[in-house]
Structure formats: structure tokens, C-alpha cells
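Chapter review: from sequence to fold.
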Amino acid sequence: MAIPRIIIAALRGGAGKTIISIGIIGAWSNLGKKVAPFKKGPDYIDAGWLALAAGRPCYNLDTFMIKEEQVLNSFLSHSINRDIAIIEGNRGLYDGLNVEGSTSTAELAKLLKAPVVLCIDCTKTTRTMAAVVSGCMQFDPDVKISGVILNRIAGSRHENIISKSIEHYCGVPVLGAVPKLGKQNFPERHMGLVPMPEHGWAKDSIAAASQTASQYLNLTEIEKIANQAATSTSNQSAKGLWRTTSNQQHPPKSPLEGGLRGVLLTSNEQPATSNQQPATRIGIVRDSAFQFYYPENIEALISLGAETVFISPFYDSTIPSVDAVYIGGGFPETHAKELSEKVAFKRQLKSLAEDGLPIYAECGGLMYLGKELVLDGKSYPMANVLPVIFGFSKKPQGHGYTIIKVERENPYFKVGAAIKGHEFHYSRVLKWMGTDNYLAFSMKRGAGFINKKDGVCYKNVLATYTHIHALGTPFWADALVQNAISYRNKSKKGF
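The C-alpha cell string follows.
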């Protein structure tokens, strides 16, 4: 467990911890350090920016969707051969699902035995921030708050009184003070940063954040705190939990490795997993409209012998020869016009679905498989695989963790299974022309598709608002690969 590590946390969402985390990762990377980035919780957007800053995949550590032992294994295995690990928290430090704070950033900090650097928004306050930091330190003494970063400082006088107050009353160092910054580099949309692949200025934004961190933060002291964590736990077994990784092999090299390609994934190149012919070929629709994929989901398919091929309706006029298609989430509504104009791709996808091609789709992928997207009164035809028309609202229609129960036969999950995931969508069903027989899931937690149900199933297509994580739902990858193999074998026999 000799892994230098640190968690960047805050008092609430929107306090600036994502930009601070991006800046630290970028600055360290510029110094030649190999940084392992992680994101606490199910967030895709922040993780995309962290991945770009580090030049390698960012892995989500989520104790709701994934068991603690698997979270530990993910952290350890993806920190191998890295100089330092940085984990960005989510929401407020102690915010969780219940009064005990389950799934909170604080819970993760204790699980990883990682020190916390608290990023605080100092807007229109001074000495009171010392009381706030003191309260956070006393709230749970097992959470090691090792330093504070001041954000949105109005000037040197403002910085001086807050720094002295915190260091005097709390006994922890102030590790930097960032002034108020404009939004030109990091505009926000919905509840987080704009998805990085949507804009060509992403690298410039990373460079700006890195420069900010280098200029205003004490990176040397932050690194010392991370190194102290490695020293203090290198000889501990953490009550046996760390032993869960002792017999684990290294995970397969991710197809998401490698700078910009690691996030944008416009290339179909990927490292070979063996000299044997792949068991099957799975097309993954990935571009600026469909960009929400956990690295582990793709790696899980590869570990089962599948070859993954990245495709896009924007860049591919036809769908290559594949045995299954996986369409992740994203924001198809921001690309509705362009998607509607890619007629050949849509028609081929529909034809393949009718032929029985296995297709698994999440959120944005679900919307793309519908008949239409209606935006501001204008209709945009989609793939027309599923009998549904989607509209959009100004407020989220589904937001948070989900628990679904599988109630009907489908190609991917056994009846009776309970699955944990999450949803986040502004879209809503305007017109549903199917029946309950199409819907495989009931929602025990979350909004779902319609009438507390989700999982639209048609032939070998299953589309759902719920995003799942392969570490928490390992049978998903196996089911997709097995369906792909069956489809390929059927095609070869000419049935």
C-alpha cells in the first residue's frame, strides 16, 4: 500500500474541487510525474477531464455500485507503476445517502486511508472558514484532513486573514489560495463541467488549470502529504482488506490509454490481448454525442476475449462487421440535428436490430434508439428501433443512484436479479407506443423510463436509463459477449 495518495474534497458541489484537481494533475504531469486519477462517485464528466489532464483513464470509485473490496482492488491495481494517485471527491465531504454518511467522500477516505485536502469557497467570508474547517475535522476524527486550499479569494488581505485563522485555530496548513477566475476556460452545463470531448479547446483549458495550480498552490507540500500517507500505511494490512488484491493479476491494458486518444477514442486501434482470434467483435458507439463509458466496462469485454471497435454515426457512413453494439450515455440532444441527418447509419442500425444483433444502450443510447427527439418544438428523427418519442425538461427527470429488479425475460439479466446503478437525464418520454411487455425492470429506487419501470427490451436490444458499472454488475459483460457469440454463430450458419 505504498502508494502516495490524496483526496481533494469540498464542503459542497460547485466549490471548485474539479478544476483544482485537474490543475494539480496537469501540473504534476507537466513535471514528468505519472499520476493515477480517480473520481469518487458515478460521475462521467469530471472523470473525462481528469483523464485528459493525466493522459490516462480515470477510474470511478463508487461504494454504492461496487463492493468495498472491489473498490480497493480497483484503486490498487490502477495505481501500479504510478508516482502518485489523486482522487477527486464529490459533493460535500460528509454528504452521503443517509445519516451515517454511507457512500460519502469521507467514507472513501477512510477506506483508502487517504489524507484529505479540503477545497473551500471563500466568497464573502473570512474568519468563519476556520470554524467550518474545525467543525469538519472534529465531525469525524478518523477522517484525516491534512490541509486546506482557499478558492475564489478576493485579494491578498482576504487571503491573509483566512490563512492565519485556519492555521491558528485548526492546526493544518493552507496549501494555496486561488483567486476568482472567469468561466471562459471551464463553462458549466447541467450539474458539472461541459463534457470535454465536445470542444476543441479542451487542451487549452487543461493548460490553464495546470498553470493556475503551479502559480497559486504549494504543490511540493501537497505531494509531501500524499507521500506521508504511503509511508504510514505501507506496512499495514488495513484489517485484511488490502489482502483482497494479493492474488489478483494486473488488469488488461486499457484501450483508453494514451493522451487525447485516451478520452476521445476516435481511433479503432487497441492493444492486442492475445495471439488468438477474438471470440467476438463488439462495436462501441463513441464520439462527442455518446461519451459516457466506464473504462472497466470496456476492459471487462476485452478480458472475456472480445475485440472492441469504436464507431460513430458522425465519422462512419456504415457500421462495420460486428457481433454486438454497445451505445453509452451522453448528450445526443446537443447533436440532434447532426444525428438526424446520418440516415444511412440509422437505417443500418435498425436493420441490424431487426436481424437480431445484440444491442445494449444506456441513457443517451436509449434516446438514440427511439423514434424522435423533440427539442423546442422541432422533431429530429432518430434510429426508430424502439417505439418512443423523447422530449426534454429544464430540470433533471432522473438523478441519483438506482436499484432495479429484473422482472421480465431479456437477453442480458436473469429474472429476479437486483442491480445497482445510477441515472441522470433531462429527457422524458413524450409518447410511448409500446406496452409493459417491453419493459424488463421495475424501479426500487430511481425514476427510470416510465411508470417506475425501465429496461426497454425488443428482440436482442435492451435500452435503459440506468447506467451500470461492470465491477458491480460483472454478469453484464459476460451476457453481452455470449449474445454476440450466439449472433455470430447464427450469421455464419446463414439462419
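Two observations follow directly from the output. The radius of gyration is 23 Å. The first strand starts at residue 5 and ends at 10.
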